[in-house]
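Teaching note: in complex prediction, the entire set of molecules is handled at once rather than each chain in isolation. The prompt given to students was simply: 'Predict the structure of this complex.' The entities are:
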Amino acid sequence: MAQHEVESEVAGTVWKVEAKVGDTVACGDVLMILESMKMEIPVESPVDGKVVSINVAVEQAIEEDQVLAVVED
Amino acid sequence: MFQRVLIANRGVIARRIVRALNSLGIESVVVYSEADQGAPYLAEATQAIALKGVSAAESYLNVDVLEGVIRKTGADAVHPGYGFLAENAGFARRVAACGARFIGPAPDLIEQMGDKVCARQLAVEHNFPCHAGSALIASQDEALTEAARIGYPVMVKPAAGGGGIGMQVADSDASLRQAFSRAGVMAERAFGSAAVYLERWIENPRHIEVQVLGDGKDAMHLYERECSVQRRHQKVIEESPAPGIDRAELEPVLNRARQFSADIGYDSVGTIETLRGADGAYGFLEMNTRIQVEHGVTEMVTGVDLVSAQIALAAGLGLPKTKPLVGHALEVRVYAEDSRTLMPSTGQLSCFRPPQLHGVRVETGMAQGQFVTQHYDPMLAKLISVGHTREMAIGRALVACRAFEIRGVNTNLALLQKILTDPVFIAGNIDTGYLDRLLAKT
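The expected output is the structure of the full assembly:
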């Protein structure tokens, strides 16, 4: 079992959180959607596994490389 | 003519409007958010007024604040540019209520064209070619009946839409049921209205648009622009004329666009977007009731200053003279986004040196030291190249991309160079799926 930190590739704002702690997710499932520069940027799970933490909330401002969620496989 | 024009916009287009106003001897008033402090065009305008806040909602979309600026400065006209409030009929009416002229078409026309179902209906009524489609769809059953009539695959589109948001393709009854509910939810979230309609899905179409100008009675066209090189339904490269299409095929479409604009009493500059199927059939996509980002392409092949023409039309000075299409022009949009992942990129421009080359026009609202923020769209500059031939325009654009020095943010300059040297692009074999295929190759 390894924990995978899901980092933001952009600075922006959290628009919508699609997954919650405890959810079973597949690689590529959308965990949340960020908004930056008038674009919606989906954040996908890097692995098949379980969501162990969601570190941000809707409308929160985020920095590049900030850890948004942790998924365990 | 107007005395003083407020520019309710920022960046590249704000600077372009300042230039047009300066050339017409009209005073320009620009507003700027805290994020745009120090932008180079602020000094080029007659007057620059600071707005509070950095987000678009606090600044460039804040109608109350903008109304205050109109009254305080005594501006007798407002240029909305593109994006922000450019296609907001409510804003156009508020401007008029202040006693100023909105530089754009009548608010009713903005409203009709903003409603995609209504716009499509107008096109049908005025014999502008349309691909098969439906009116507003009320229920899933109705969607299934209409899809059977139109024929799969169909596209479910939000009526209040734009920018490709919420569009879903369905190729069977089962997938249509899913697409119908998903599109409704997305449309509700993005546009505050769940209304959707169906249109026949055209596989790998070309995006061909017609530049029109109207004075409320008469109308003219200034030829087409080919805008098929897109990512996320956003254009990356535009050119005029459209490569590889016979003038004999285009002429009827251009004339229909002109006739349509005259019939609806169109009274500004506008763009009629169409999708051209592989069979050469054109279908109405939408009409943009504003100056377009890619207007410079048309300016370079016709010699008509479209922004000045738009201002003159708003002042009631009539249409410009029609001009022949000469040479070939190509615009590449330089975005602050990664060439490989297409992820947007923010930061301070530690180096920003646009190229200065013969046959290449640079449009930018940025300068070295400025910040690229998450609050606005990621376009840094437009490079518009012109040549006697398409080959020459492509060559000049390529040299310009190589010479453009930008540091501090990731840019798509490498991707632009890849497109401009791609044999498929050079051969003109482009459609709206082209860029995704090119990106998938590597």
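Point out the following to students. Residues 15 and 34 of chain A are 5 Å apart (CA to CA). Chain A has one domain: 3-72.
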